[in-house]
Each structure stands twice: as C-alpha cells, then as structure tokens.
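Re: Re: token formats

Sure, here are both.
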Amino acid sequence: MVKVNENCIGCGACTAVCPDVFDLNDDGVAYNTLGDDIPADLMDSVKEAAEGCPVEAIEVE
C-alpha cells in the first residue's frame, strides 16, 4: 500500500521522481494515482519518492 498522508505540502518532489504514480490534485496536494495497483517495476521509484519527501508524507507498506 502506498498512501500520501495529511503532512503533504504539495512541493511536487514525488511527482518529479515518480510521475507514473504521483500527481497533485486541484488543491495542490499529492496523491497516488494508481491506488493499490502499483506495478512492481515502479516500487523502487515510489520508495525513492518517499525517501525524498521533505515532510515524510508518503507511506509505503
């Protein structure tokens, strides 16, 4: 499971690292565009985005 929590400040770092999974909504907050259907080959990028998030808003389980 990959979730963006309420700590998101909308900096866009995750969308730069992993645009296939993350996008910003109309409020400028990041969200996971694929839900629970993230392909295994994108998980390294998802983890990189989580590690690069300045407010630790991306939760990867």
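Second one below.
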Amino acid sequence: MGIISRGFSGRSREHNPALPPGQYLTEDFPVLSAGPTPDVDTAEWEFSIRTESGAVHKWDWEQLQALPIEEVGTHIHCVTRWSKLGTSWRGVSLDTLFAEVETSNDYVMAHSYGGYTTNVPLEDLLDGKAWIAFEFDGEPLEAEHGGPARLLIPHLYFWKSAKWIRGLVMQSDDEPGFWEQNGYHLYGDPWLEQRYW
C-alpha cells in the first residue's frame, strides 16, 4: 500500500480561478518573438484595415491618439505556460476602428512590422474584446513587448496579440498565420488548452 504525502501533489494551478489549465503565474513579463525586434518610429507608424472590396482604412500615430482611448485591466496567458494577472494597458478598441469598415468576411489576418502574421476570427476583435495597445503599466509600450503598438486580444493565447501591428486584412476563410502554419492551434483558447494542432 502506497503512502501519499500532501506535499507531493505536482504543480497545481496555485488555486487561482483566474489561471487557465496548465499555466503558472509570473511577476515578470517574458519576451518571446518569432524574429528580431523591428525599430518602428511613431512618425512612420501606420495602421490599416483592408477589406475584401479593396477599401483601405488608415490611421497614422496622431490619428490613432486622437481616437477614444480606453484603460484595459486584464490577464494575459502565453502558450509557453506563463500567465500574468492584473495587467494594465491603454489603447484604442477595435470596435472604434471597425466603426466605418464594411465587410462581410468573418476572418482577419493580422500583419506586423517585421513580417509576422496571425489569424483571428473577426468576432474575437469586436464587442470590447480587443485593442490596439500602446501603453503598458502607465508607460509607452517598449519595443521588445511590441511597441509602439500591438494587438491585444487577452482572451486568446498571447501569440494572437501580434506585436508591432501594422494592419488587418479581411479574409473569407480562416487561413493560418505564422505560428499556426508551424503547429500552433488555429484558434488558441487558453481555457481549452488549444496550444497546438
């Protein structure tokens, strides 16, 4: 008959209901990127949304800053198993940016300076679920964390929150982006542990 010690129960979710399965808490903000960090000057930065009709909606840095800015308090979860709770961001809601965009497509490919891409269903960008974030913890977003601006979709694994965001292209199909082509899950829900195919 075996003896089970209460001290040897494996790594738990630390009894925190905000922590998805398989994740551990970190106080740090780990830096993980698919390539080198691009140097993007706000004077040259531009964000666009391109629809299936060829219409392009564009904002430069000053135009983005002139839009309604929201404070976002949220948890973030990386596919590499770390979670950071209670993070603080500032940015522009995708609801604001899509207000004048007409599309019948259901999917988006996010494109970053540096060439990174990731796919997202349009419904995951709207209704207060996603932002173009440019501040973290009261400071301008550092380049290593995606500054000057990144996509922020906190309800999905963090690889979906594309760093150095430069645009969204509407798509009729859910075509895979960079990490999705390399084995990551097409959607990436941390609560369902949708890490890989």
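Residues 1-13 have pLDDT under 50 and may be disordered. Residues 127 and 169 are 19 Å apart (CA to CA).
- S.
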